[in-house]
Amino acid sequence: MVKIGDIELGAFPLLLAPMEDVSDPPFRALCKKHGADVMYTEFISSEGLIRDAAKSVKKLDIFEYERPVGIQIFGGNIDSLREAAEITERVNPDIIDINYGCPVKKVVCKDAGAGILKDIPRMVSMTKEIVDAVNKPVTVKTRLGWDEDSKHIVDAAERLQDIGIKAISIHGRTRKQMYKGDADWSLIAAVKNNPRMHIPVFGNGDVTSPEIAAEKKEKYGVDGIMIGRASIGNPWFFNQVKHFMKTGEHLEKPTIKQRIDVAREHLLMSVEWKGEKLGILEMRRHYANYFKGIPDFKPHRMKLVTMDSLADLLEELENIESIFSSISYTF
Question: Which residue is catalytic, options 38, 102, 120, 267?
Fold first, then answer.
């Protein structure tokens, strides 16, 4: 049984990765419904939280049905990060996660996200401040290092464990790689196989099929897998992985009708939570994956990503169902 603190997660948990403008409550609800074991929110700016910025505060919304859920925060200023952690604890998440992995320039230039990987002692001291400030389990998501010459993750993970974090998720790339090249899971395994490590070690990066997930589990011995981009427009992925690991066989892929039903459910929840304008806008990133592999779908996808009326979108989804659901496709 894998545990974060006292939270039981099952024998081999699958975690939904925190993804900006993706891992919001509507998407988390669908992933939970389709097999995800642990939810993580979009990352939240510590500076935004302490200044009561509406966008940051909105991201604190969590719901009972998605537990266990972790709220992820980021920042480069320890006072702000500590205060943000205390604000976060008040909404009663199960876990508080610190982002030390985001590689984008606007985050890194503030010594936040993966920017901290240039200074591991500071990373450790900042984390200790958060661990000491809150009563919730603190976890960390990070990368192998800043670049090829500074892959200090084995030492960093041990030091973070020693100051009190309860789990670590590691993306198998450096900050310099961004999302290019292949994720290196051998160093994730080196963290897991360090005889001094006793907290859960979760691997992340390039898990794009149930077979790859099973291979990562067997080859690298991680305690669980954090799944990110493979789940976008594809919340079924979690159950597909679980089924394959249990049986060695593939679940039947969702039918076109099932895809449409879930896309519609996602759209309606998005509009309910964010309002019609923003809900429609942020839903657009999901359509390509919801309908990936359907021949001659491009004209319909273009409509879905350009319409700005909920009524029109719902009508177009009905139109798609009437056109495609009677046709048998092998994806």
Answer: 102
